[in-house]
Recover the amino acids of this structure.
C-alpha cells in the first residue's frame, strides 16, 4: 500500500524524530488546522462520551449550504477513501476504466469488488494530460464505470468542464457511471471552470467525491463526502455503508466550513504566489523535468542518467526530507517523484538540497 505521508514507517526505519522530518510527500495545506476546528476540539471533549449523530445532519446541512447541494443527495465517509469504496461497492461494476497514472485506491477498491480494470494510459509526450477525443472513443456498452481524478494525482493536471460534459454525455448513452474524484478541487482558485458540483443534477450517471483532508490540513480527522442525484445508487450506498463512520469532531466540521472564509482566501493567496515562485526555481535546476502543476503538488522527472528515485530518496532522507516515490504508479517508473508545495522557507531548503544531490551524483 504505497501512499505519501507515511511518516511513522520512515521514522521507525531511519530513526528520524517526528518533529525533524520534513514531509514533502504529503500534499497537506501548510497553513495547518483552521482556528475554528481547534476551538471545537478543545471545548467539546465531553461530547466524546456520546455517540455522534448517525445521520450527520448538521454536517450534511453545512455541506449543502456551502456548496449549494441538495442535502438528500449527500453521503459522508471516513475520508475520501471510504467514499470511493462505498461508491464502487454500490455500483459493483463488471468492467471499469481507470487512468494511469492515478490514485491507487481506485484500483484497490475495484479489485475488492471483483471488477475488471481497463487502464487508459496518459502519455508522457502529452505531459500526462488527458486527450478527450482519444479517451471518449473507448467508452462503449461494455463499460460500467469510468473513474476520473480531477485534479489528477500524481500528475497535478486538470480536466475542464467541457471535456467532462463530453465524457458524461458519451457515458450516458452507454448507461455507464462516471465517478469523479475532486479531492484537491478546493485548491483550484478557478474551480467553476473544472468542478462538476454545480452540474451534478444534470447527470444521473455521475457521482462526485470530495475530501476536506488536504485543503483543511486534517488527515488525522478523516472526512470526505460524495454527491449524486441517482437515488438507486444513494440507496445502495446508504444500505451497505458502515454506521457511525465519522467520529464526533468530524461530524462538527460543518461549523468550520461555514466560518473559515479567511482561511480559504489565505490558502488561495499562498498557493498562487508560492506555486509560481517554487516552480520557477525548480525549473532552473538542470537534470530534472518539472511538470506544470494545477494545484499544491508537483510531478517531477529525473532526466540525469545516473540518478533514480531510490538514490534521490535516500539522499533526501539524510537531510530528514521525505519525497513521494512515484514508481509504484502505473505508467511511471524509477525516474519520477512527487513533492508538495510548502511554506517558502521549506521550499527554499528543498531546492538547496536537490541542487546538491544532482551536482554530487
Amino acid at each position: 500500500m504505497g501512499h505519501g505521508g507515511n511518516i511513522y514507517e520512515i521514522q521507525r526505519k531511519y530513526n528520524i524524530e517526528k518533529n525533524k522530518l520534513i514531509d514533502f510527500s504529503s500534499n497537506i495545506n501548510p497553513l495547518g488546522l483552521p482556528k475554528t476546528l481547534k476551538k471545537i476540539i478543545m471545548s467539546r471533549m465531553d461530547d466524546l462520551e456520546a455517540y455522534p449523530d448517525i445521520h450527520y445532519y448538521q454536517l450534511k446541512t453545512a455541506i449543502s449550504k456551502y456548496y449549494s447541494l441538495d442535502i438528500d443527495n449527500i453521503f459522508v465517509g471516513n475520508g475520501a477513501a471510504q467514499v470511493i469504496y462505498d461508491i464502487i461497492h454500490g455500483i459493483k461494476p463488471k468492467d471499469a476504466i481507470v487512468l494511469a497514472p492515478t490514485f491507487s485506491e481506485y484500483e484497490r477498491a475495484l479489485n475488492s469488488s471483483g471488477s475488471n480494470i481497463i487502464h487508459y494510459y496518459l502519455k508522457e509526450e502529452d505531459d500526462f494530460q488527458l486527450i478527450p477525443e482519444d479517451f471518449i472513443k473507448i467508452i462503449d456498452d461494455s463499460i460500467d464505470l469510468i473513474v476520473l481524478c480531477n485534479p489528477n494525482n500524481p500528475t497535478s493536471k486538470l480536466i475542464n468542464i467541457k471535456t467532462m460534459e463530453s465524457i458524461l454525455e458519451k457515458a450516458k448513452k452507454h448507461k455507464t457511471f462516471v465517478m469523479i474524484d475532486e479531492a484537491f478541487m478546493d485548491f483550484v482558485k478557478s474551480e467553476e471552470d473544472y468542478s462538476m458540483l454545480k452540474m451534478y443534477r444534470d447527470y444521473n450517471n455521475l457521482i462526485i467525491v470530495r475530501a476536506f483532508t488536504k485543503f483543511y490540513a486534517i488527515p488525522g480527522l478523516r472526512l470526505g463526502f460524495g454527491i449524486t442525484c441517482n437515488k438507486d445508487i444513494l440507496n445502495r450506498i446508504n444500505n451497505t455503508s458502515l454506521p457511525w463512520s465519522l467520529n464526533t469532531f468530524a461530524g462538527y466540521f460543518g461549523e468550520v466550513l461555514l466560518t473559515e472564509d479567511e482561511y480559504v482566501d489565505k490558502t488561495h493567496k499562498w498557493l498562487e504566489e508560492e506555486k509560481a515562485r517554487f516552480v520557477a526555481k525548480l525549473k532552473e535546476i538542470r537534470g530534472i523535468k518539472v511538470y506544470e502543476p494545477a494545484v499544491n503538488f508537483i510531478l517531477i522527472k529525473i532526466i540525469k542518467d545516473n540518478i533514480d528515485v531510490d538514490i534521490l530518496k535516500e539522499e533526501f532522507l539524510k537531510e530528514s526530507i521525505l519525497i513521494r516515490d512515484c514508481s509504484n504508479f502505473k505508467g511511471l517508473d524509477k525516474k519520477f517523484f512527487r513533492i508538495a508545495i510548502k511554506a517558502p522557507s521549506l521550499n527554499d531548503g528543498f531546492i538547496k538540497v536537490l541542487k546538491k544531490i544532482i551536482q554530487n551524483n
Q: What stands out?
A: Residues 7-27+261-360 form a domain with the Aspartate Aminotransferase, domain 1 fold (CATH 3.90.1150.10). The chain has a mean pLDDT of 94. Residues 261-283 form the longest helix (23 residues).
